[in-house]
Amino acid sequence: MSQMPQQAAVPKCPSCEEPLESGDRFCGACGYDLSVVPARPEDSPTLAIDGAVPAPDGVDWPVARDSDGHGHPAPVHAAAELPGTDSGGSPLPPPPPPPAAPPSTPAAAAAPAAPAGSPASGVRFDRPGEPDEYPLQAPDPRLTAEQAPAPEPAAVPRQPAAPAAVPRQPAAPAAAEKVCVACRAGRVDDDGYCENCGHAQPRERDHMEQESGPIAAVSDRGLRHHRNEDAFSVGCTALPDGARAQVAIVCDGVSSATRPDDASLAASRAAGESLLGALPRGTHPQQAMHDAILAASHAVNALADEPATAREQAPHQNAPACTLVGAVVTAGLLVVGWVGDSRVYWVPADRATPPARLTEDDSWAAQMVAAGLMNEAEAYADERAHAITGWLGADAYELEPHTASFKPDRAGVVVVCTDGLWNYAESAEEMAEAMPPDAADRPLHAARVLVGHALDGGGHDNVTVALLPFPAPPQGAGSA
Questions:
Q1: Which of 4, 29, 255, 241 is nearest to 126 (CA)?
Q2: Rounded to whole angstroms, how far apart are CA atoms 305 and 311?
Q3: Is the pLDDT of residue 142 over 90?
Q4: Which of 44, 46, 254, 471 has its CA 20 to 30 A from that of 191?
Q5: What are phi and psi for residue 290, nearest 5 degrees?
Q6: What are the DSSP calls for 71-130, one per residue?
Q7: Cα-based distances in Å from 339 to 94, 344, 356, 389
Q8: Are the C-beta atoms of 194 and 183 separated by less than 8 Å?
Q9: What are the pLDDT digits (tens) for 405-430?
């Protein structure tokens, strides 16, 4: 009866030195057949307990000296210094002199020579972290020297890896990349975090500032909201007669609606582009403002049909929505337009002249005051005061754009803002008091001051304001 070959009791593969486990019949690294390994001979230690070295039969090894007599260690014998015999007991002939080495390349000189009689070796790259040199094929002990295949040329082993370098400092970001606001060194990844310190970066709309000619606008997320749902658009253009026209649009996203930040951005861009395109063609500024509000309404309505809205919208949510307010300043003419509760204020350069509010809110409080049911203080103290009755959006009631024209008889500054500002400067007098006296000459500075006024007051909402200086009209112009 045949028996299964048994594994020889060896801890490592005789071919590749790979550690073996109990019960292995073949090497897991090179596939060597472990059944042909001869049984381990009896244990016969090289050094006996009494210190004597047992000599193998037939070889008279010289006795090693402990020292050279002067306290220095005994010299070490190399293998070539000891006499040897062949299998018949005859002395071995002296080894021939090594042949002259041919000129070698630097790479060949760096590679260590394979020892004589060693099996062919190769290189494996599919097991990182392990030695690079493994035999490609284990020799079969059952083949004679004539039957054994010729060994393949040995591959040059890889040079040892260079020592680990000192951790590099983060590379300076390229000029076009965003730099971290915290460490001022790392690059900001696409997910909004610094690759160096991991700090979350403020979003682009958290704080925005822009100057366009004499116009300036500032928008800030505020201190309580997680994002900025306001947006603005400012610009300058020329009328057909060459006179300059200044345009400012400010939009406030309705927080209870879906994607309010997208709605305000789409509305402000559409209205601004409509105005800057219509005024140079000779369209009257008030008609251009009316058309711009309609264009903004169409842009917001289109958001309701986008797949992103359908995925986010729940039964209790409305379509994307926002409010809008805008102003156009030309030579001697001021045109305003609005839907919702964002406002326009007029602050004269001569602070002895009273300021004025130029818009009426589309809100519950304004309706109560207009109907005579409450005075203004009572209405705006009610928790329903800021519930709007007009907005831009697919689910809005019948759209009624409001427009008005004024002809101020003196220089001043037009303030276009969301309720995030006028909640802290509600009356025209409070707005004039919060505005710096040099606002007409430094509109960006003045806009920053007004936003800071709202943040100092609590910053409960997003804050956006645009300032348009109004030049002194020629004599004979009408009054506001």
A1: 29
A2: 11
A3: no
A4: 254
A5: -60, -45
A6: SPBPPPPPGGGS--B-TTSPBPPPPPPPPPPPP--HHHHHSPPPPTTPPP-EE--SSTTS
A7: 109, 12, 19, 9
A8: yes
A9: 999 999 999 999 999 999 999 999 99
